[in-house]
Amino acid sequence: MKQVRELAEAELPSLLVLYRDLHAHPELSGEETETAGRLSSALSAAGCSVTAGIGGHGLVGVLENGTGPVVMLRADMDALPIPEETGLPYASRRPGIMHACGHDLHMTALVGAARLLAALRDHWSGTVLFVCQPAEEIVAGARLMIADGLFSRFPKPDCAVAVHVGPDLPAGAVGSRSGILSAGGESIDLIVRGVGGHAAHPDRTRDPIVLAAQTVLALQTIRSREIDPNEFFILSTGSIHGGRKHNAIPDEVALKMSMRYHDRAVRDQGLAAIRRIAAGTAAAAGIPPDLTPAVTVIDESVPPLITDAALTERCSTAIRGCLGAERVVTIPPLSGSEDFAVFGEAGVPLAYFRVGTKEEGGNGAYLHSSRFAPPAEATVRTGSIVLAVSTLACARKG
Length: 398
Ligand code: ZN
Ligand code: ZN
Known about the structure:
This protein is of the alpha/beta class and 398 residues long. Helix content is 35%, strand content 25%. A hairpin with a 3-residue loop joins strand 1 and strand 2. Helix 1 runs antiparallel to helix 3, helix 1 packs across helix 9 and helix 5 packs antiparallel against helix 6. The longest helix is centred in the N-terminal third of the chain and has 23 residues.
């Protein structure tokens, strides 16, 4: 395992060049053309046979090394519509777009793992799939790749491992857990309808603005009054829009909401409660039945990320052996969502590791912040080692 650390150290300078290049040239979800080109070259140079254009700009690099298990390593490729304010010398050169979720680091770690595993061929036997997944931030890319034959055009993986940067953990630390790791999520559109009219004659209207305000507050009782206190559930309203003028009551108000859950039954309970409360609040406001609020679950569902206990333990043991026991910690479930979960839903056992990015003197910015500036060296080093060592643990020779 000392060999893995030494190899990682030797690869670090050129990996950091790749990282800075990826960071400076971010691309939005579904538009990862240049990113795919850079990764295709890097994975080919590491010895993989690369197939591009899977589920959009998705990429699969295959490293074959005799008989044995098929291990999938996955990195996400897309950036966010956020103007970068880190002041870094390699900051985004694309106005309004930024790698603020560390996907540039995940891709670099994936290339690092490819190089390490190619150099360590004598120590493992099997096949490794290096999967670069587009469109994670709109939770679409994993499904698109599966629909485009990820598990039929390539050998179906026996397990899959991914890393994600973690601003809650110190740089160099690795966090994971067995079972629920991140939340399932639904995006919900709610149109509150009324009867518009003159603001000076509210008596001649059915005001959807007042009704929308009552509905937003009433929906918060789902968490506080209906869901089992021991269950995880969040409902947040992220957008509320209605009307155009001071003195006109509009016909409708549009709400956009985000729901997070761990248990499918809690999700169903929450959705049923949203429909009931929205309709009931409207009825109490005198809204006629044909204008009952419209509740739509939009096509951005993501299941909870559930990791495999045996796989997580096997990989964690190997990572402890390489990096030291004190560097590997158990983390609580995350309230965010991650579409790596979709590969698990398709029947592949998953392990998922958060790679710490918090450092002394850092600016403390979290994921999706315009100031998110993770320490590149520590993160690339640890990320590459986590992916490579996990693969060795799953496909060890003999
Ligand atoms: Zn993100
Ligand atoms: Zn992310």
